[in-house]
């Protein structure tokens, strides 16, 4: 039976990378603790350190979740009014 690949969240990867950066234990100990291969921990640590400058860089403009909903709510309202009008017109 084929075993599927495990997928790890970004928060888990960051947690493991931070533990590796602290160097309180060897890679072998961390690998046993988190049930990972030591090479995977090294890769995540390297990637974490390469992208560390992004944490303090200029803030990326995050899309406001309400910015795209305004026009949609307007359209829903318009369709509701049209629906009500047609129901009344057909009811006569």
Automatic annotation (TrEMBL):
Name this polypeptide is given = Transposase
Family matches, as InterPro entries: Homeodomain-like_sf, Transposase_8, WH-like_DNA-bd_sf
Recorded superkingdom: Bacteria
The molecular function terms of the Gene Ontology recorded here are:
DNA binding; transposase activity
Query: What GO terms describe the biological role, i.e. biological process, of this protein?
Result: DNA transposition
């Amino acid at each position: 039976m084929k075993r599927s690949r495990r997928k790890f969240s970004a928060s888990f990867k960051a947690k493991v990378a931070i533990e590796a950066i602290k160097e309180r234990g060897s890679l072998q100990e961390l690998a046993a603790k988190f049930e990972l291969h030591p090479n995977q921990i090294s890769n995540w640590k390297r990637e974490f350190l390469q992208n560390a400058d992004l944490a303090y860089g200029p803030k990326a403009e995050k899309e406001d979740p309400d910015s795209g909903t305004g026009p949609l709510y307007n359209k829903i309202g318009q369709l509701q009014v049209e629906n009500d009008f047609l129901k009344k017109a057909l009811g006569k």
